[in-house]
Amino acid sequence: MKRAKKKSTQRRLQSNGHIAPQSGHIATQEDDDMYQEPHRVIKIPVNQLKLSELDLKEEHTRVLTANDPNVANNITKFNYHSHCYKIDPPGGQDNLAIHLNFEGSTLRKEGAEAREQATYYLKYKEDLAEAKKKMIVEEHGKAEDENDPFENRKNQFNYSERAAQTFNNPLRERCVSTKPPKVINFSGCVTQWEIYDRYMGDYVMQVAEQELLKGQEKRGGGSGSNISDASQNTGATKSDDMVHSQRMGNALKKIERMLNQNVDDEIFQDFKYWDDTSDAFRDGEGSLLPLWRFHTERSKRKQVTALAWNPKYPDLFSVGYGSYDFMRQGGGMICCFSLKNTSYPEYTFTTESGVMCLNFHSEHCSLLAVGCYDGIVMVYDVRNRGNRPIYSSSIRTGKHTDPVWQVQWQIEDIAKELSFFSISSDGRVANWTMSKNELKMEPVMQLKVANASNDDPEDTLLPGLAGGCCFDFNGVSEHLFIVGTEEGKIHKCSKAYSGQYLETYLGHHMAVYSIRWNPFHERIFISCSADWTVKLWDHNISTAVMSFDLGNAVGDVAWSPYSASVFAAVTSDGKVHVFDLAENKHEPLCEQKVVKRAKLTHITFNQQDPIIIVGDDRGGCNSLKLSPNLRLNHGHVNVQQQAEVLESLLASASIKPIE
Q: What local confidence, expressed as pLDDT, does residue 173 receive?
């Protein structure tokens, strides 16, 4: 403040002319102005945007991306293969920026290079110490062995007294503190003589075990030992051939399955894990994914006439081959395929007549009942390697006179012997009991021709039996079963009343090919016919509850094991129709053509996996996987809830009960 007043006084005096300006004073004034802070004037532009306090406090988010703006994204190159210019797709290293890159210099102590480096440093220190001694001798003129007064002198830069030092723990790196695991190189080779010696050693052990068993049985004595010796001798002769032994067969079977799964690895991955993600964007629609096609060279000229899954092993199913053409009858064949080995059947059996139907026993899963075109029924044990059945019907014990269209096992608590039922075009439903040596036939019902009207007395006097095509037993009432005939009529029958029908259902105009009870509802069953229709029935109502026209002859229909409202049917034009009544009562969720220039004959659902098997008239079986929209309830089945769903569907339909 004093300096400013002084300057203003001088300026006034100079302006009035009292004091003349001096050069020394002017220099001092300029020096004073040099150290003063400059004046700051803030000017607002005319076109500046005026913002309020809220606008100024608003935060703007900026997004940082890893894309380099200097990298071109529209590079076009000439493609000599397509003879045109194509845009070069961006590469994975285009936007990569390396900020730090250096080569490591860490060596392992046990390595040869580390030892060479340690030797080099040790020699360098020795040479340095020797050069230092020589330099001291040259400067001071003393010998090397004389005491050096400067040897233990203190360093003025990093010297510190011992009393002021504290103990510092040495730093250790992880790579130094840990010891690497020991690595041992192992190698070997397998030669032909080593394999031979291994098999011969195994053979010697088997012979020694057999001799030991023989010695124990001879010590026991008795007549029974001679029989056992003879049986063991025959078994020994069979086991001598190690190439054709049972153990070799099992080993080769496992190798074959492993090779097959490696070859078809993509299909097996789709079977286990793939799901159609497009189902999430299409409500009320589904699709079928083709997996494998099962066929053999011997079944090319035959038709698939029967399909059945094994109840215990979900990957095993049997296929019956025959012919529906009356003029082209020949031998039949049964093949048991497995999903683990899709290239060749696990078991194969041949029959003199064409196979028309087959069914696995629910408890004894190795027993397979078979019905043939010549009216003979047989029982095979798939564990036996022989081609002969364990039971077979004949004229002496009784047989059907026409083709057997369906067989079905039925478990009864009272009966001690196993039995199954069959139906044939001769108009008879028979019960077959497996006794000790033969099959015993017991007629259950004769299918009499039922007339729709009794106005004409001549029609009531016409003799004959109605040809049976299919039947199915109720899951709750074991005595109750329904029968489909060639006339298109469906009869409700009972094993307790074999003389008459309990009810006759009219609706189909041609032969009924398949009829099935619903596995969740005791009153509902479904039927398919050659008149292009699939009908849903309530056995307490004489008319069909629902009817679906599929546009071609329907070969087979099947309920799904996981939902009461889902069923599938196959038609003669090669299509598979999958319905879900809970989603759509009028149209199928999936209508997909599976084969070309072939007719589909049968269909069946797997009890565990979401797949179906369909057979055609060219000897092939196609496996298909259901998309997620076709198996909404798969994996968690509530029987009571499924029955209620179907009951609500029946309540919504316009039906009239029988008076």
A: 62
Phi-psi region of 315 (alpha: psi -120 to 50; beta: other; left: phi over 0): alpha
pLDDT in tens, 463-483: 578 889 999 998 888 889 999
SS3 string, 163-228, reads HHCCCCCCCCCHHHHCCCCCCCCCCCCCCHHHHHHHHHHHHHHHHHHHHHHHHHHHHHCCHHHHHH
Residues of the chain where predicted confidence (pLDDT) is lower than 50: 1-23, 222-239, 452-462, 656-659
Q: What's the token pair of residue 318?
A: 């049997």
Instruction: Answer yes or no: are the C-beta atoms of 293 and 620 closer than 8 Å.
Output: yes
β-pairing, 575-580 with 590-593? antiparallel
3-state secondary structure at position 368: strand
Distance CA 238, CA 236 (A): 5
What amino acid is encoded at 346 in this protein? E
3 state DSSP class of 564? coil
Q: From CA 446, how far away is CA 156, in angstroms rounded?
A: 124
Closest to 467 measured CA to CA, from 530, 532, 513: 513
DSSP secondary-structure letter at 359?
A: E
Stated pTM of the model: 0.62
Q: How many residues does the chain have?
A: 659
Reading the block at residue 168, the tokens are 């510092």
The angle at the Cα of 387, spanning 381 to 391, to the nearest 5 degrees, equals 50
* Residue 435 and residue 388 in contact, taking contact as beta carbons nearer than 8 Å: no
CA Rg value for the chain: 48
Closest to 302 in 3D by CA, of 19, 621, 609, 623: 621
Tokens representing 44 are: 């607002």
Q: Which residues does residue 337 pair with via DSSP β-bridges, in sequence order?
A: 317
In sequence order, the 6+-apart residues with CB closer than 8 A to the CB of 294 are 319, 335, 337, 342, 345, 620, 621, 622, 623
d(CA 58, CA 41): 28
167 class by beta-carbon count within 10 Å (0-12 exposed, 13-18 middle, 19+ buried)? exposed
Tell me, what's the pLDDT at 250? Answer: 84
pLDDT by residue (tens digit) across 319-369? 999 998 888 888 899 999 999 888 889 889 999 999 999 999 988 899 999
Q: What is the pLDDT of residues 480-493, one digit of tens each?
A: 999 999 999 999 99
Residue 525: phi and psi, rounded to 5, are -140, 160
Closest CA to 313 of 251, 372, 368: 368
